[in-house]
Request: fold
Amino acid sequence: MRKYNAGDDIRRLNWKLFAHIGELFLRIGEDAEDPHSRLLCILDTGTPAEGFNTSSGGLWEDYLDSMISLCGTLVINLTAG
Reply:
């Protein structure tokens, strides 16, 4: 454990110790979560944009299936390392 210095990763702050002694210290040796280890793929499945024909034989459903597949492919490829 060491004292906090400006610019240190605030995710490593020991808040319990701060509550007791009123000074900021960093936890050393504990791995903080890598901010690049999370991936979020958002697909808006709301009402289609104006002009998108939803009445022609499931075109909208085909589009959604393709976008879901694309999101899955992106997640697999980006997390493969």
Q: What stands out?
A: The chain has a mean pLDDT of 80. DSSP finds two helices and two strands in the chain.
